[in-house]
Amino acid sequence: MESQPSSAQPSSAQPSPATTSAMVSPHSFVASLSSMTQLDPNNIMEVLSRMIYGSNMISKAGGSLPTTYRICYAVFQGQQIPEEIAENDFEYKEIREHMEFRQIPVSHESILQCYRETVQHAQAAKYLITKIVLQGRYYDEATIQHAHGILTHQIHLSPQMCWVNYGGYYRPLDAPRDLRFLDPS
């Protein structure tokens, strides 16, 4: 990768070694997509990261574009991603700054949720692209439910709706819904 996206917010901290080393070269997932599409691996990374960032922004989820890019790069490279981040981690500070900038209520749990939303969105996208595009399998109910389970792991809709009760399952019609994406503010 030649450069970071230019929309990075200033910060005195540096990325963790795990996410920094993830930016060295694309993993076979991206290489396979590149071979199949004849597109540059960096372009593929850029498009997939922006897709995930944009989707997360619709529902006020996830972190900044630079955070999303680094996390996506690590996930798509196949690196082991920590399930949680600590308060002194670069990503934690960057997500906090992003949430404050977007005027989203900030707490330790909300920062961890934004981190998980980004990681899991990348993992779910990788799963679907691998299965449907690279392996050429038809998508079916089980595939969609599995991707939904990846996407919703440890993301509670409300205190009454824990992720284990809805992740990977069809929701009943009266289940609480996250309507943040409908709020124009």
Which sequence of SSEs, written as H and E, runs from N to C? Answer: HHHHHHH
Mean pLDDT across residues: 76
Helix share bin: 40-55%
- Report the sheet with the most strands, covering strand number, pairing sense and barrel closure: none
Q: Can you count the helices?
A: 7
Unreliable runs: 1-26, 180-185
Proportion of residues in β-strands: under 5%
The separation of the N and C termini measures: 35 Å
Task: Provide the number of structural domains.
Answer: 1
What is the total tally of β strands?
0
Radius of gyration: 17 Å
Q: Oligomeric status of the shown chains?
A: single chain
Describe the structure.
- The protein has one domain (17-169).
- The termini are far apart.
- The model is unreliable at 1-26 and 180-185 (pLDDT under 50).
- By secondary structure, it is mostly helical.
- The protein has 7 helices and no strands.
- The chain is globular and about 40 Å long.
Features:
185 residues, mainly alpha, 52% helix, 0% strand, globular, disordered N terminus
How are the elements arranged and paired?
Layout: H1 17-21, H2 28-37, H3 41-58, H4 65-77, H5 90-101, H6 108-134, H7 141-152
Helix pairs in contact: 2-6, 3-4, 3-6, 4-6, 5-6, 6-7
Q: Quick gist of this model?
A:
This protein has 185 residues and is mostly helical.
